[in-house]
Amino acid sequence: MIRYVVYNSTTGRIHRHGVCQPGMLSEVGHKVDQTVMEVYSEVDPKVEMVDISSGDIISKPAYPVAINKTTVTADEVDEITITGLPAGCTVTVTGPVFSEAVINDGTAEINFYLPGEYMVRAWNELGELFLADITAVEAT
User: Fold this and answer.
1) Cα 96 to Cα 118: distance, rounded to the nearest angstrom
2) Which residue among 45, 63, 71, 118 has the highest number of C-beta atoms inside a 10 angstrom radius?
3) pLDDT band at residue 28 under the 50/70/90 scheme
């Protein structure tokens, strides 16, 4: 069996990996902007990517993403702060209210006006960077 990865030809993000019979690597399906490459050991797409210039499997960059709290008052004043985000990443909030923003200065400040359970996710072209469950409690 041959191990392979399918990765984005521009970013190096590994979209999937698997095994195939010898001689069948050219038959592995992929999109126009993706490349199929044979690899010789297990890969973990959550923490690894392909170096476009060398074709080597390398560790993804580590970002020091941190959040100041996971419970907030739903009063449009109290907010969570996420720091250490890379420029150009997207932060998505899902729950009773949906919002999405591209972060360019490394910090996302998010407040809530409806109480409820929310999921905050930060991601970029290399995949997910951060995921947190947030509870917005009713203001008293």
Assistant:
1) 7
2) 118
3) confident
Q: Phi and psi at residue 84, in whole multiples of 5°?
A: 80, 15
Q: Centre a 10 Å sphere on the Cβ of residue 54 and count the other Cβ atoms it contains.
A: 8
What the block records as the tokens of 42 is 């297990």
Domains of the chain: 2-59 (no CATH), 66-138 (2.60.40.10)
- Measured distance CA(16)–CA(126) in Å, rounded: 13
Give the residues across from 106 on adjacent strands.
Answer: none
Instruction: Tell me the C-alpha distance between 60 and 41, whole Å.
Output: 17
Alpha-carbon gap, residue 69 to 76, rounded angstroms = 15
What is the reported pTM?
A: 0.75
Question: pLDDT tens digit string along 50-80?
Answer: 999 999 999 998 889 999 999 999 999 999 9
> Could you give the CA distance from residue 47 to residue 30 in angstroms, rounded to a whole number?
21
- Identify whether the C-beta of residue 113 lies closer than 8 Å to the C-beta of residue 74: yes
